[in-house]
Amino acid sequence: MSTQTRIVFIVSDGTGITAENFSQSILAQFEAIFRHIRVPFVDSPDKAHDAVTSINQAASKYGVPPIVFTTLVNPKLNAIVGKANGVILDMFQTFVAPLEQALGIKSTHAMNRLHHDTDAYKNRIEAINYSLAHDDGQSNRNLAEADVILVGISRVGKTPTSLYLAMQYGMKAANYPLIPEDFERGQLPKDLVPYRHKIFGLMIDAERLSEIRNERRPGSNYAKLENCRYEINEAMAMMKKESIPWVVTTSKSIEEIATTVLQSIKSDKTILG
Amino acid sequence: MSTQTRIVFIVSDGTGITAENFSQSILAQFEAIFRHIRVPFVDSPDKAHDAVTSINQAASKYGVPPIVFTTLVNPKLNAIVGKANGVILDMFQTFVAPLEQALGIKSTHAMNRLHHDTDAYKNRIEAINYSLAHDDGQSNRNLAEADVILVGISRVGKTPTSLYLAMQYGMKAANYPLIPEDFERGQLPKDLVPYRHKIFGLMIDAERLSEIRNERRPGSNYAKLENCRYEINEAMAMMKKESIPWVVTTSKSIEEIATTVLQSIKSDKTILG
Fold first, then answer.
1. What is the pLDDT of residue A137?
2. What is the count of residue pairs from A and B with beta carbons less than 8 Å apart?
3. Phi, psi (degrees; rounded to nearest 5) at A247
4. Using only C-alpha atoms, what is the Rg of chain B?
5. Selected residues 3-32 of chain B with any CB under 8 Å from a CB in chain A
6. A237 near A182, Cβ under 8 Å?
7. Which of A22, A24, A25 to mutate to test the interface with B (most CBs of B within 10 A)?
8. Cα B228 from Cα B226, distance rounded (Å)
9. What is the pTM of this model?
10. Each residue of A119-171: pLDDT tens digit?
11. Would you give the DSSP letter of residue A239?
């Protein structure tokens, strides 16, 4: 087991965010400490040489070649960065060659092709605006437009999940709180009834919920374990009665919760459940 | 140039979101139509066999083996999926082997190691809550806590960028509108003055702005090209006078805008500018 910090460069002609996310998940497999340095928008020979200089400086400073993930479409820029004093892991070329063979066509070597889809962009912005306007039951208008309506008690993760679904998938994700009045009536909030088929529930462990609520309102009845247990039991009874699918969010990341929601509601088979 | 739709599977023991993003950007290099199917949470032999069945069915149905990106940590599951009738692109093993050699240590083969960092998770949720509470100048409280304050005129992209910075990087990103009253006074909103060092401006082309505003308020003075030009010129003059860095968002994705903001404000060198 090494305790030395290893420097990791991510060199991309775009933002490098996807490559950085990938690098973080694969390096989480190693018991070592990594420091990530992202070098985005490397779209000219000058910038490629600058990246090489940074990598070589890090190699000298730490006495060991940095790990370098590259996603460079342009072969010239790729060749420049490929000569840096680092362990080069070429995410682009590694997969382009077998893809060219499998598809029987050549890649276009065009940078940033993904970003010019303005319809998808507009869709995404609209979804974010929709989710913001329909956060925490703020508005009952246009719920018919929602792709999904997340329900759950307070502090269960509805807001981040809605925003993530909007941001990543352009989904109009509303969210609606379940409150003690709903439990007393023993019924879903009436505005939601027509949309039962697109409701998804978020649940959480009582201990974790009490912890989270105590951070916000220390010592309140709202945060008491006993009250958290009551709300959770009532919410669970309602989900079951109304046949609403649900997921326990306690130890899940926002991405995991969002993926589980998608698996449950998607009918167009872009995801397998 | 092929016009046949090719099926692309992303098989992952986690959410598969990173692999899906990567697959989309690399396939954007090919002039073909792709349909992505994500198969998340493949963490047992049964689920691996189910994935193989889906891949093989698609191969039969379309008469051509699908493209299959895999990120499976477990060698047994990887071997099962590796036998599917597809063009297997193993994102995990391809890079783990050279990394093991470079680092001189073995990978742990543990699934989902990344998600158990609860501090990072808490930080991220707090940042989202902060950014929501400080959206569109809603609150002047705790601006001292902000990692960045985005400023700009209406509909320039402040809200999605703030939320993205919070979601992806756990940054407390406030945003504040610049309005005609600020231009008449010729000064930054006074609540922002103490924080000038962490302000970043978003700008946009007048034509595009007019288009966006017309979608929201058709035919309004607010949306008129002339008015958009006025607001943009005034905002630009203010940025220059106050030495505030800025970026034009017109044809940029949220990720590109966020990356540019980070390059400008980051002092801890996790990103190179």
1. 93
2. 207
3. -140, 145
4. 24
5. 6, 14-19, 21-22, 24-32
6. no
7. A25
8. 5
9. 0.93
10. 888 899 999 999 999 999 998 889 999 999 999 999 999 999 999 999 999 99
11. H
Kindly tell me if the per-residue pLDDT of A113 is higher than 80: no
Q: Are the Cβ atoms of A22 and B91 closer than 8 angstroms? A: yes
Q: Give SS3 for A101.
A: helix
Q: Considering only the beta carbons, identify the residue of A15, A73, A98 that sits closest to B256.
A: A15
3-state secondary structure of A246: strand
Length of chain B: 273
Count the neighbouring beta carbons within 10 Å of the beta carbon of residue B240: 11
- The encoded tokens of residue B25 equal 């950007």
The encoded tokens of residue A81 equal: 């960065």
CB contact under 8 A, A40 and B271: yes
Asked if the ipTM is above 0.90, the reply is yes
Asked whether the beta carbons of A134 and A171 are under 8 A apart, the reply is no
